[in-house]
Automatic annotation (TrEMBL):
Originating species: Candidatus Enterococcus murrayae
Lineage: Bacteria, Bacillati, Bacillota, Bacilli, Lactobacillales
InterPro entries on file: Knr4/Smi1-like_dom (IPR018958), Knr4/Smi1-like_sf (IPR037883)
Pfam families, sorted: SUKH_5
Protein name (Swiss-Prot/TrEMBL): SMI1/KNR4 family protein
Domain Knr4/Smi1-like residue range list: 23-148
Superkingdom as given in the UniProt entry: Bacteria
SUPFAM superfamilies: SMI1/KNR4-like
Amino acid sequence: MEKYDKAKRIIQENDYLVDDFGGAQKNSIEKAQKILGVEFPEDYKLFLADFGALTFGSIEIYGVCKEDFADSGIPDTVWATLNERELIQMPKQLIILYNSGMGELYCMNFNELNKENEPQITSYYPGFSEEAQRNEILYDNFGSFLLDMVMEEIG
């Protein structure tokens, strides 16, 4: 939580870079978890409650934008994840957080857990076979991912 809290402070201090969707309601977060078949880690739930989804400068962190996930779009994590599951049979343990723009998706990987039993953030390349995926661990948890992203954005 410490890294999430630090990232949140940086976001608030640089509000001129922020475009968010307003916090997601608790029932929307619960519905998103049920549809995706996962329990989000606490720091990601806080992010969703605080921001919904977030554009911070040039980065766009996926979240929960509205409760009608089928009629949503980017940066809605439910819509994006379900879309990739349908189009390319992306594994169900992956939940999309960020698109690098270079063909790589950053995902919460519920098969790669840290010592707190939270999903680590791994890479995924759509269009490559599962055998070719390395699912490289990029971050230990969501808070570390968010902090790194906002720090990178402010230079």
